[in-house]
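Hey all, quick one. A colleague (J.T.) asked me to put the adenosine-5'-diphosphate job into the tracker so the inputs and the structure tokens live in one place instead of scattered across chat threads. No bug as far as I know, just bookkeeping. Sequence used:
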Amino acid sequence: MNILFCASEVQPLIKTGGLADVCGSLPKVLQAQGHDVRILMPAYLSVLQKLAKPLQTFPLAPESGGEPSQLLESRLPDTELPLYLLDAPHYFAREGNPYGQPNGEDWPDNGARFGYFCKVIAQTALNQTGLNWQPDILHCNDWQTGLVPALLQSAPSLTRPKTLFTIHNLAYQGLFPQSLFEYLQLPAELWSIAGVEFYGQLSFLKAGLVYADWISTVSPTYAKEIQTTAFGCGLEGVLQERSTRLRGILNGVDYDHWHPEKDALIAAPFSSEDLSGKVKNKLALQKEMGLPINAKVMLIGNIGRLVPQKGIDLLLELIPALKDRPIQLVILGSGNLEIEQELAALSEQESSWFRFHTGYDEGLAHRIEAGADLFLMPSRFEPCGLNQIYSLAYGTLPLVRNTGGLADTVIGWSPTKRMENIATGFMINDASSADLLTMLDLAIAVYKRTDTWKKLVINAMSKDYSWDQSARHYLDLYRELLA
Ligand code: ADP
């Protein structure tokens, strides 16, 4: 099968969240199974700096009145995966992350940038960009690629690949004024409530949902949740209509990067048979974060974007109350500036037990996963979530909310049932600080029962969320699409 993956971020080249992890891992696994998989992404400045000279270049016809651009062929680092980069310097050769300026604000021309990206993907899907290669399956991811299925809908079905649109987060919709629709010169028939229009605006995400041959999202529970008003972000009706073409496939984990026995970024390797290394990681993390060195105290970790989705505000509210509990807390994150400032102030004030590190730090993320005892993830919604799966692998029991991929990957401990042989973490139902505190206290109590805790750790570490199984589900879906 020829498969083209399109995404706005791909690990290890550029990452702001789980989307990049998926787009850097799944293609590798599919290629290893004998498929011709290629990736197409924008050539951001920082990505070009990480890659060697391109193997080939393919000039593109300029947009009307636009600047020249080209596709560069390269390889995804440490793989044999062909990688095509859309080199349109006027759109992508900028400092900052894929979507925003260094000051954190979105680029004002994101609609034009990703609109152009979508057009080039559609041309590539029709073998019109000189690659002399055409995919059977075009796998689009999130709103930045949402227009592609709409652009391909008028192509005769024999000339175009089948399209799969994967939702990694329904909350990010790519909404732009109607004027962008005109600027991009999109076919007039797309502008309707049954098309790309969403309350008078152009929605890239809705375009993907309406026009893709199939839709998937990154966990079975989230696939159900997004068809309800509570989680559908206004698109629940569209998703209900397409429910026979909507599937939830859980993300896998790249255990080459996230494995406590071979992780080069952590202080000491460990396994479920020999947990002594885990304690070494804990002591090293305490030292690195400037916390008192103490193997006995429960060390709690949290990593993620500082946005309400992740329930970071629930945790923030609790911090003063946690002061008298026998714990240490380490938070790594960036995002909302106000939350960053409040966490930084508390970190100063409560430095004997709480440290906050702002910014994006891959190494520290690994060291927190390895060194913490408990990982907090009280998300209000969570399409899949990866950190709780990394936590399982590192024997760091996740305390999560019963939603989306968290519900699909963690088995919550309950004192009323005999859970020792199956529980892999702790689970709360409500997104409230009160529930979080109650469950945290329960976790603290279980932590004191060393044997029980160890059993839970071993249960967690025995779980396998490798990509093989998820890749099989994607391949089944691709085959269904081609049948
Ligand atoms: P989302 O995609 O909603 O941000 P996921 O849990 O699916 O959440 O994936 C987040 C990924 O980004 C994980 O690999 C996590 O380790 C990483 N990550 C998030 N914030 C940071 C940070 N500040 N530093 C390092 N890694 C981070």
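Adding what we noticed when we looked at it: The chain has two domains: 2-252+467-482, 276-461. The longest strand covers residues 298-306.
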